[in-house]
Amino acid sequence: MALKQKSAEAPADAKKRKIVSFAKTDRGVEANECIKIFLVSSQDEVVSKEGFCIDPIGLNQYFGEAGIIYGYKDLKINIWLSTVSFHAYADISYASTADGGKGITDLKPGLENIFGEALLDKNEFLQTFSTESQCVGNIVSAGTVLGCYSLNEDGDSSDAHLSDQSTVEHQIVRMNLHSLPVGLLYSRLVPLTLLLIDGSSPIDVTDPGWHVYFVVKRVRSHSADCDLRLVGFSLIYRFYHHPDNTRLRLSLILVLPPHQGLGHGRRLLESVNAVAVSENVYDLTMEEPSEYLQYLRSCLDTLRMLDFEPIKPAVNTAASSLMDSVSKKPSKSLADPPAHAVEIARQKLKINKKQFLRCWEILLYLNLDPKNLKSMENFRASIAARAERDVLNNDIGVKGKRLIEVPNDYDHDMTFVVYYPLGEDSDEADGRFDDENGADQRKQLNKMIDKRLEEIAEIAERVSLLRS
Ligand SMILES: CC(=O)SCCNC(=O)CCNC(=O)[C@H](O)C(C)(C)COP(=O)(O)OP(=O)(O)OC[C@H]1O[C@@H](n2cnc3c(N)ncnc32)[C@H](O)[C@@H]1OP(=O)(O)O
Q1: Ligand 1 center to residue 417 CA distance, Å?
Q2: CB 261 within 8 A of CB 237
Q3: Which sequence ranges form a coiled-coil region, renumbered to this chain (predicted)?
């Protein structure tokens, strides 16, 4: 019996040891660590191994289990992504391969998951710089030019070699995505969106509701033909609004990393706003904007609202009531915009309700004197009241069911939350955070309020600077 046990245990121990020794010899390498991606605009940049190194989001998700690549010693994957034709080439190097117990990861499926058919072998890739040099220009020239601007691009080294006779102009061009060449160009841009936008996923290019707005850089010189390069793009979806209108939703915006922070994204957003106004759509919304995009959007919309005469009296009234109020707990109506202000901003500026409320808070802040502690205290209380109302659906378990409208970026007319109030403006309401769970919620709510106040102050400061 003892012997039997011993013999039964021996192979198991051996197996354990084996696993340990594999783990030591091949711990693998994370895709994030061994892959570098460079944007290149010429053959020379590939040959001299130059190019703009981008910082992709989550390469690990495309490779093996948890992004670990096994079986390679000193693996390096340099990917060259052409900003002329948006084809890619992967230069893979390693000292040796060996199966250390986890096999040798096949790199092809991971790379194809990102780059699809845009992934070429080296020779084909190098050739695209001449064979496809006009690919963006040929397609975009059929679009509708919405606006032109020139920039002093201090950070853009591609302008450095231009002769005195060359002119650089940027254009914003709108195109229907379901036209075949545009759809093909967009499909080559998908890898960039996967690499640079968190949570992005491809869309159905055959749906006629999609438009793409391209930002292109046009370089004209006497010696050569006009050279046209893609700088950024945005996807806009148009959908029906009952009974006889449409709405626009910005689903994606990307400025290529070498051109970010130079004003292209802002101009792209301004163009989309201008289209929404000129075509008199119901409103313009955004699909899950990143924090920076939301910041940029709020800067722009606050500037627009600051110049918008019809809401000025309402802003002044709300701001003075915050300054004058001596109440310990200002009622929510003190800082809330009147319904007509929300409505007129939607009609004329195409700003939807949720975005209006964000900018409204910034407008109020801009009207307050930071040295007047009472008004700042009242302002914080009004932000807190709104934040509390936004999370009120947590108050389940209390008598008196209510239905409230919760504005969202898609359709504020359609979203409702059932909640059970404690009496918002009564002392009873303070009891809602009393138990342990409630204390935790209060802590989170306070954090949320502090963050919101910081954002308001940051945008207000930026907006004041831009107007000075
Ligand atoms: C729905 C979605 O797509 S979510 C994902 C969003 N996209 C991404 O995250 C992809 C990666 N990021 C990007 O592509 C870009 O950074 C974008 C699209 C978010 C922004 O585009 P950029 O070209 O970088 O921004 P741009 O330079 O135009 O604007 C930024 C500056 O303009 C300033 N600005 C705003 N309004 C104005 C104005 N009226 N006049 C002058 N400057 C202004 C902003 O304050 C900001 O400067 P700051 O950061 O120093 O305060």
Answers
A1: 33
A2: no
A3: none
**The model's pTM:** 0.85
ipTM of the complex: 0.98
Residue 53 is encoded by which pair of tokens? Answer: 């190194």
DSSP per-residue letters across 196-213: HSTT-----TT-TTEEEE
Residue 112 falls in the annotated catalytic set: no
Q: What's the longest Cα–Cα distance across the chain?
A: 95
d(CA 42, CA 211): 29
- What is the distance between the alpha carbons of residues 89 and 128, in angstroms, rounded to a whole number? 11
- For β-strands 96-97 and 72-73, DSSP reports them as antiparallel
Task: Reduce the DSSP state of residue 325 to 3 states and report it.
Answer: coil
**Residue 324 CB–ligand 1 contact under 6 Å:** no
Query: What DSSP character marks residue 172?
Result: E
- Domains and their CATH numbers in the chain: 26-129 (3.90.360.10), 134-153+166-288 (3.40.630.30), 305-390+442-467 (no CATH)
Sequence-distant (≥ 6) Cβ neighbours of residue 334 within 8 angstroms: 318, 321, 322, 325, 378, 382
Question: Within 10 A of 74 (CB to CB), how many other CB atoms are there?
Answer: 10
- pLDDT, tens digit, for every residue of 184-241? 999 999 999 999 999 888 899 999 999 999 999 998 876 666 789 999 999 999 999 9
> Which single residue is written with the structure tokens 């007509």?
340
CA distance 382 to 335: 6
232 C-alpha to center of ligand 1: Å? 12
